[in-house]
Amino acid sequence: xxxxxxxxxxxxDLVRQNTGIELESDxxxxxxxRLTALVYKEGxxxxxxxxxxxxIEGTQSQIYRKVVESMLTTETYFFRDDNPFLVFRKNVIPxxxxxxxxxxxxxxxxxxxxxxxxxxxxxxxxxxHFPELNSWRYRIVATDLSLENLEKARAGRYxxxxxxxxxxxxxxxxxxxxKGSDWEINDNIKSMVExxxxxxxxxxxxxxxPDIVFLRNVLIYFDASKKQEILxxxxxxxxxxxxxxxxxxxxxxxxxxxxxxxxxxxxVYFRLKKT
Length: 275
Ligand SMILES: C[S@@+](CC[C@H](N)C(=O)[O-])C[C@H]1O[C@@H](n2cnc3c(N)ncnc32)[C@H](O)[C@@H]1O
What we know:
Layout: H1 5-19, H2 28-41, H3 47-57, H4 62-70, H5 83-99, E1 105-111, H6 117-129, E2 137-144, H7 147-155, E3 157-158, H8 160-163, H9 169-175, E4 176-179, E5 182-185, H10 187-190, E6 193-197, E7 212-215, H11 224-237, E8 243-246, E9 259-264, E10 267-272
Parallel strand pairs: 1-2, 1-7, 2-6, 7-8
Antiparallel strand pairs: 3-5, 4-5, 9-10
Helix pairs in contact: 5-6
Bound molecules: S-adenosylmethionine (SAM).
S-adenosylmethionine (SAM) binds at residues 19-21, 72-76, 80, 112-114, 118, 144-146, 149, 199-201, 216-218, 247.
């Protein structure tokens, strides 16, 4: 279904206003194919028909939300890039155990969590490697903009292809149960993660102050000033000795001098400089 220039411009504005993502003009084909898929899914006749419904029904409508969400890239998989999870297990949690031993509590925030594989990977590590945490109070709060992603994340149900990416046979056997042709994560791991909707550009972030932040593979979609806005917000809520993990192509360098990179195990995390 061909996409007209004014339709592309309409989507570009809608996506910028609702997600902060800047669609470049070379994304026309991507927009066209995502809108075409939505047209079929909703049983509509054309992109024109879809966009006229968006305009008539307005910003609070289901169809508006579905168009916004259809433009989001949701790519994710279990233990993505391995090394950040290795460092989380070998360095970060041991540090937390040592420094939070009096209070026995800490918070993890996994922002832009997509369909849940990332926070569930963290939960499996805590469950499998740190039995001493049974007597601690900790929260793994996972957020995303997309209600559709969050619904899938809460269900914790994954296709054979999704469980074949990064999980490993041991984790599959230990933490998942086969349901039809899919696999569902067990209630123990599921109950360790709290999912809620949050736009990274919301003025107020309704999450407990994190000791550890995973915000991976999302800054890449924003321009420099929006990245700075998000880093500034993280700084204002993160523990002063907290840990920030970004995607492998993302950094705070050149954006926010208050963070410094720590290189370990072929990966990097970021901490606030001591003042
Ligand atoms: C590529 S996925 C990354 C998933 C996961 N963090 C990972 O690294 O595997 C990007 C996610 O960012 C979310 N996202 C995009 N813009 C957002 C925004 N403004 N606020 C919150 N989430 C957003 C999308 O819905 C999508 O689930």
